Structures are given as structure tokens and as C-alpha cells.
Amino acid sequence: xxxxxxxxxxxxxxxxxxxxxxxxxxxxxxxxxxxxxxxxxxxxxxxxxxxxxxxxxxxxxxxxxxxxxxxxxxxxxxxxxxxxxxxxxxxxxxxxxxxxxxxxxxxxxxxxxxxxxxxxxxxxxxxxxxxxxxxxxxxxxxxxxxxxxxxxxxxxxxxxxxxxxxxxxxxxxxxxxxxxxxxxxxxxxxxxxxxxxxxxxxxxxxxxxxxxxxxxxxxxxxx
Length: 223
What we know:
This protein is 13% helix and 39% strand. It is mainly beta. The chain has one domain: Galactose-binding domain-like (Jelly Rolls). It is globular and about 45 Å long. The chain starts with a helix and ends in a 12-residue tail after the last strand.
């Protein structure tokens, strides 16, 4: 090999080694694996289970709100005629689960769903979803562009199932979008126990698995 050829090969190898790998977007239906991978990548996790009355007290069914901000996440309905509420029926753990009311806008072709808007960059999101109408299916849409459809595993059943995604490139919005509902055959989704992976978490104190709603109240018991 000539000196020039060897030099060119060395430059090529160095370039390939130094080039950043493309961010791998990964979908999950196993929460334990999802949380393990989030931790391995160095992010912390904010957990939202809707137990904080400070944030969610005004959205206890039958009351609704047009939006709710909690732990740096603004929750929004996916259509102009719906608002947000929490109720005991769709809860997986604790007293409350989450849904929009009315469910979707099926007459205008908008299935059930909702949006999360973060004040910072998110790298992961996961949730336990359930439907009272068999045949519901879910997509996650990151920043209005990246669609996570989970392949054949996107069925939302009548018992809670986990759906999550990690995107190392980061995102600030995520839409949970039900894909099968129609005006003559509406499909409803409910959620609980959401996980948000980020660099800096809003909550670090949990009581019996639920966000306390006021970290200062627990400062005396934290070493």
C-alpha cells in the first residue's frame, strides 16, 4: 500500500469512527425494559399518575379543563370541542386515570387522543393505556412528524397495556392518537402512570408510588 493510500485509508477510518451514529428511535411495550433503557442512557424520569390535586384538582370528573400543566408538561385535547378530565374508572393505580371529554371528534374524522407539550426536551415517554371499546389502536406522534405505530402490537385492549418510545434526538411534543375510531364505531382511550424521560426532572419525591405534588412538604424527611 502506498503512503498516500495508507493515509487516505487512515482518514476514512478516523472519519467513520468519529461520525455520530444516527439516533435510534425505539418503541416499547415492556415498561421494565423501557425504564431500564432510559436509566442506562442517563435520563431521569418524571412520573405522572394524576394524584396531585394542586395540578389536577380542577379536572376531576365530571369537571373538565381545557388544559393542565403538571411537572413541566402541558396536557391538551386533540380537538377544539374536547377538554381534559380524570376519573376513577380508567385508573390503573391510585384514584385517578386520564382521558379527554368528549372523546375525540369522530364526526370530523378525529379519533380519540391528546397532546403533551413539554417546556424542555423529552427523550422518552411511556404510558399505560386502556379502552372500553375493543379494537382501539394507538400511534404516538413525536413533534408532529415521527409516527410510532408499534407494528402489530398497537392494540389497546380492555385491560391496561404499556406503550413507550425513546428518541435520543429528543422531542418536545407527543400526540397519543387513536387510529381506528369512526363516527359509527368510536374507540376510546384512557391513560394512567405516564413516564417522561428528560435531563432534569421536576419531581424526585414520591409517596407510595405517586407524585407528592409538593416536594417542599417532604424536605424534612429527605436525607
